[in-house]
Amino acid sequence: MTDSTSPALAYLEHCRTRIDHELAQGIQQASVSDRLQEAMRYSVLGGGKRIRPALCLAAARAVGSLEDAAVAPACSLELIHAYSLVHDDLPAMDDDDLRRGRPTAHIAFDEATAILAGDALQTLAFTLLADAPQLSDTQRVSMIAELARASGHQGMVGGQAIDLESVGLALNIEQLETMHRHKTGALIEASVRLGALTAPGVSEQHLSALSDYASALGLAFQVQDDLLDIEGDTEIIGKRQGSDAAKAKPTYPALLGLDGARERLGALLQQSKQALDGLGEEAAPLRAMADYVVSRNH
Amino acid sequence: MTDSTSPALAYLEHCRTRIDHELAQGIQQASVSDRLQEAMRYSVLGGGKRIRPALCLAAARAVGSLEDAAVAPACSLELIHAYSLVHDDLPAMDDDDLRRGRPTAHIAFDEATAILAGDALQTLAFTLLADAPQLSDTQRVSMIAELARASGHQGMVGGQAIDLESVGLALNIEQLETMHRHKTGALIEASVRLGALTAPGVSEQHLSALSDYASALGLAFQVQDDLLDIEGDTEIIGKRQGSDAAKAKPTYPALLGLDGARERLGALLQQSKQALDGLGEEAAPLRAMADYVVSRNH
What we know:
two-stranded antiparallel sheet; mainly alpha; Farnesyl Diphosphate Synthase; homodimer
């Protein structure tokens, strides 16, 4: 962890405190099945860096909104992320038994409960947006439309499908980036855009700059993930080191070499921060988050 | 099939034509994975009675709305229903290999694709509501909130969790109904309520009457399902006859006997139709649907 990450770490900690409280409240709403509710809580509240919520809150600040208005959208993003992890870890998918340093949901509970918990976490994301305080119905609808597009078959789930189809195949760098732009990039971009949409009159120009920031950052995030899979420590990264290589998944280092991947990471960081040039001091947390994403050790 | 079902059959056919066209359009929107999109299409467009969309369109008519305004909500209900079937059929859940007379999605494709297709179908339901034409943003938000509540951990998914937990247990009739009110009832009630919400000024009184109608109808639907599992023909019902009993699932006939279950069915039908007493001739399709639900042979 370098010095450049400390402002982001403080900001992430601040975001986590706000978000985790709201997430716990959201899941608390009476369910008819204690086991299902417990699996949802386990999957959402068991750690995690809260990068997407933090990007959402940081984008709200960058366009001059109050943080309060961005809390529900931020939670909805984390719920979508959490559901995707639960389903991705299933035996029929990536078959992972360790996540965030703990047994994955289908190991801690059972496969059926994990499938249902994932399903219900997705639904809850839309409940939170439909009920989001301090926003107009028009803002709620815009956010729901953006989140759905980013997370469905045209976004995250589509990317996950490409990922599964690509195991063992020789992707080129364009195909790899297409996969990542969907699998992780779309939701990271939505995180920033939902934050910006908390400002009722946010300009197209700001929205577009923030999308560019997020688009580069999303890829940078993935390059760093690939590097950590090779260089990271299982205990710190919270999942098995080398698990991508073991599954013959295409990665940046495999295509560009270690040095090439590190170079790409630097270029993406620069691209990401340059996109914020038209924004002022209010965008400091977004800039800090970019530094964090490329330097994090888990 | 008795004479009392013919008006409903004509109405269902009318609804299916409208809905299936819109559903095909919705899924057509470019996905990045052909296989995922194909699995979504297979799971949604491969038959099905379209009871939920028909209830939604019929409720819209009952409160004096134009059918056009109810088409997108009707599609969203069918998408939630379709996703729940795909996930319920998975090996870790009900492990069914036959649905609507065809191999289930995880057999026709593979388990991972079935999980993702279900996930994406749920998301698409919310996209359709967020983009629904002829509705105000306030109506869209109300419908999204209702649909999410009916289908998440407080509704359908919660009911499915109870169902899984109940296999082999001796439920009493109250516990059985609690399960069904969540597992199938909540979405049937949402079908009718979303249809009614197409009328911007729909009265609380009408909404409440329609909820009562749907609540009784939802249980009636389940009683008839249980009876068909015993008395039906595998070829006609499109899934294995006797599959509930084989899994030691609690059913109405098991708890009330065949005659008792048929009696309960009659009482629920009456209750359902009585709830519509305050509505006029415009509610005829809803009445026809009630007759259909208790007399259908699949």
